[in-house]
Amino acid sequence: MATLTGSAAREEIAAANERFMDAFGRGDADGVAACYTADGQLFPANSDIIQGQAAITTFWRGVMGTGITGARLQSLEVQGESDFAYEVGRYALTAGGGQEADRGKYVVIWRREGARWKIHRDIWTTSLPAQTPA
Amino acid sequence: MATLTGSAAREEIAAANERFMDAFGRGDADGVAACYTADGQLFPANSDIIQGQAAITTFWRGVMGTGITGARLQSLEVQGESDFAYEVGRYALTAGGGQEADRGKYVVIWRREGARWKIHRDIWTTSLPAQTPA
């Protein structure tokens, strides 16, 4: 396992994260889904596995429909090989007016498709305290 | 990215999952933590990142302390290279009497350390519905 620090792959993954954040900020669920492989998978809490770009589009459109207007990704670690890498990072979701709606951490499996790196497996967990029943 | 189907690595990862489940079933938090790399990380919901074997031991001992007596892992996908792989799977946690306490899905980054594969990054999310405040 080679560290991709300074490599083209690392820069391309950073650029892909920028595309994700830009699309999210535009409310463009199709643009967000385009960051994933055709057989990409999401593993959200309180849900079964979500697979494929159509289902991924629907998922992110649903998140946007709850009033989430922005996603910020902070990469902590990228390791991998020529066409396959994993990333660990932190995320924050913001609602209207920039207030924090959620924050947590994520693990993404990236796969290279030609010149582009795409998100192949995407899983995250909130770092906020559990909501306890009132 | 090579599929590890049929390879020694795939069998070793399956054996490592068996060690995890066996240790869990014995209530042996140290044995569970021994399945992780020295700088392994967990990403539980409602928590910051947990890093290192001591913290990982404490985490799993805490889970066992809530009455969880068993963990069942079902591997769905293992892909990787010579010393690094990812796995997607489903888990179920059981409480006393074998009743299901939680079930969900996970992504694990495995790293080879000598002959042994160890869990390097471990993240999972419940598939149960969200608990809504009463």
Question: Can you offer a commentary on this structure?
Answer:
The structure is a homodimer of 134-residue chains. Chain A is of the alpha+beta class. Chain A contains three helices and seven strands, in the order βααββαββββ. Chain A has a seven-stranded mixed sheet, with helices on one face. The radius of gyration of chain A is 15 Å and the shape is globular. The A-B interface holds A 1, 41, 43-49, 79-81, 83-84, 86, 88, 104-107, 109, 111, 121, 123-134 and B 1, 41, 43-49, 79-81, 83-84, 86, 88, 104-107, 109, 111, 121, 123-134.
Features:
homodimer, 134 residues, alpha+beta, 7 strands, 27% helix, globular
Detail the topology: elements first, then pairings.
The structure is a homodimer of 134-residue chains.
Chain A: E1 2-3, H1 8-25, H2 29-33, E2 36-42, E3 50-51, H3 53-65, E4 68-80, E5 84-95, E6 100-113, E7 116-126
Parallel strand pairs in A: 2-7
Antiparallel strand pairs in A: 1-4, 2-3, 4-5, 5-6, 6-7
Specify Rg of chain A, calculated over alpha carbons.
15 Å
Structure classification of chain A: alpha+beta
End-to-end Cα distance of chain A: 47 Å
* Largest beta-sheet details of chain A: 7 strands, mixed
Strand order of the largest sheet of chain A: 1-4-5-6-7-2-3
Residue-averaged pLDDT of chain A: 92
Q: How many beta-strand runs of chain A?
A: 7
**Residue fraction in strands of chain A:** over 45%
Low-confidence stretches of chain A: none
- Which pair of chains forms the biggest interface, and how many residues does each contribute? A-B, 35 and 35 residues
